[in-house]
Design a protein that fits this description.
This protein is mostly beta strands and about 140 residues long. Helix content is about 0%, strand content about 70%. The strands form two sheets. It has a five-stranded mixed beta sheet, with no helix packed on it. Strands 2-1-4-7 form a four-stranded antiparallel beta sheet, with no helix packed on it.
Amino acid sequence: MNIQVAVLCDAATDDNGKLNLLGAFDTIYARELPAVHPQCSVALRVTFFNGDEGKHNLRLNFVDADGRSIMPDFPPIPVEVTLPDDVHFGTRNFIINIQQLKFDEPGLYSVDISFDDQSAASIPLLVKHVPPVQMA
């Protein structure tokens, strides 16, 4: 298995196997805390090989810098990998939409991705507090 793309973005779609991304980002600038990001997506593009055939579980966990989950763990996503005899690999896109993502504090966060409880990728995210400028 090879994760070709793991990104946090404003939105993503799958168009017949083509992964379309809109607004990939790694930093959120928050005017006030707690901050709520209304909508984002985790987009993954994963290539599976012959030895990867079978049932797998994909898991995501959004954590703070101390490794604490900032939202309930997503339920595992079951993934069944079967490849026709005449191909050497198969690629699949996964799009996980997240709404009302809340950040209580500024700092470093990440989306940790695992297959079958084995770490596969981590997407970093920095939340910066940028208060509005007070006019004198």
